[in-house]
Every structure is written in structure tokens, then in C-alpha cells.
Amino acid sequence: MGGPMGVGDTNAHPHLTAELELLAAAVAADMPVLGVCLGAQLLACALGAELLPAATTEVGLGSVKLTLAGERDGVLGPAGREVPVLHWHQDTFTLPPGAELLASSEKCVNQAFRVRRAYGLQFHVELDGTLAKSMQPHLPADVALSAEDVARVEGVGSALLGRFFDAARSLR
Q1: 48 with 14: CB under 8 angstroms?
Q2: Cβ–Cβ under 8 Å, residues 171 and 163
Q3: Residue 8, in any domain of the structure
Q4: In whole angstroms, what is the distance from residue 92 CA to residue 94 CA?
Q5: pTM of the model
Q6: Residue span of the structural domain in which 154 resides
């Protein structure tokens, strides 16, 4: 999931080195992996991508647009061409070798990717009302999380996450 640290903050957060190694090993073993926000950045870097500062910070409710590959994807595709999400990042990444780009936004091209059974989502879809209330004090003052928008993200996100876990279970 997300966090205030970055992929390169291994001196202050030494556990990140072990996470990078674990992610690379899990993908090599063809295990299902889901990396969200910092998790997507860690996954991308574990697979050989480069972490970069984003052109602009992306924070707040918004959406991502699925690529053609994203529309065909069994996990993301059923969510529709435009997926409501919560953005909260200032970094981005290049795509790792062999990755398929699944979603982009106007501010950040690499929003979602897949390598084998591993998915990286730069955005958040795990949002619900309780989480939104706990996040609000930490968001910039000009970012509001309306109940209606949070409910849209929650509905789409819950279904998307369910499809990921269904696919993970079916391929044991």
C-alpha cells in the first residue's frame, strides 16, 4: 500500500530492501502480486524499472483511463474505460521490462501495469468511507473527499479487488 517513504529510502526504512527482494522472487515464482501506490513503485523497481519524480503531484479523487490492454484485462477491464480512483503520489516509474501498461491519467502515464500475475496500481481503489475520514486530516487543505465520490471509488474498487483475488485463487 502507500506510505510517506519512497522506494529509495532504504537507509531510513531498511525493510524496503527485503520487500524489493520478496516482490522480485514472488513474480519470478509466478505468484499473484498486487502492489498499490508505494507497492506499485516497489514492484516496478523490483522488476527493473526506474523510479522518477512525477511532473506534478497527483492528490485527490480522480480517474484513470484504461489502455486497450487494460480494457481486455480480466481484473481491470470490467471496471469500464474510465475508473474512479484516489490519487496520492509524487513519484512515478518507468515500466519494467515485459510489463503491459493497463491505465494512465492526464498527469501520470504509468498508472497501472501487469507483469505475468503481478499488478501494480499507482492509484488507490481500496477506499471506503472509514478510510476516507481517517485520511482527510492528512490530505492537502484543498482536497475534499465527498461521500458520493468515495462511494463510487469503493464500489468499483471492491469489485476490482474481488476480481484480483478470484483470479489469484483460481490459478493455484
Answers
A1: no
A2: no
A3: no
A4: 7
A5: 0.93
A6: 15-170
Helices (H) and strands (E) in the chain, counts: 5, 6
State the Cα–Cα distance between residues 74 and 25, nearest whole angstrom.
24
154: how many CB neighbours lie within 10 A of its CB?
Answer: 18
Residue 123 within a domain? yes
Number of Cβ atoms within 10 Å of the Cβ of 99: 22
pLDDT > 60? residue 128: yes
With vertex at residue 152, the alpha carbon angle to CA 148 and CA 158, rounded to the nearest 5 degrees, is 135
Q: Sign (positive/negative) of CA torsion 95, 116, 25, 89?
A: positive
User: What are the grid coordinates assigned to 34, written together?
Assistant: 498486487
**Joined grid coordinates for residue 7:** 522506494
CA 47 to chain centre: 15
Query: Which residues are known catalytic residues?
Result: 37, 124, 126
C-alpha cell at 113: 501495469
CATH number at residue 51: 3.40.50.880
* Beta bridge partners of residue 53, listed in sequence order: 91
Helix (H) / strand (E) containing 18: helix 15-28
pLDDT, tens digit, for every residue of 75-115? 999 999 999 999 998 899 999 999 999 999 999 999 999 99
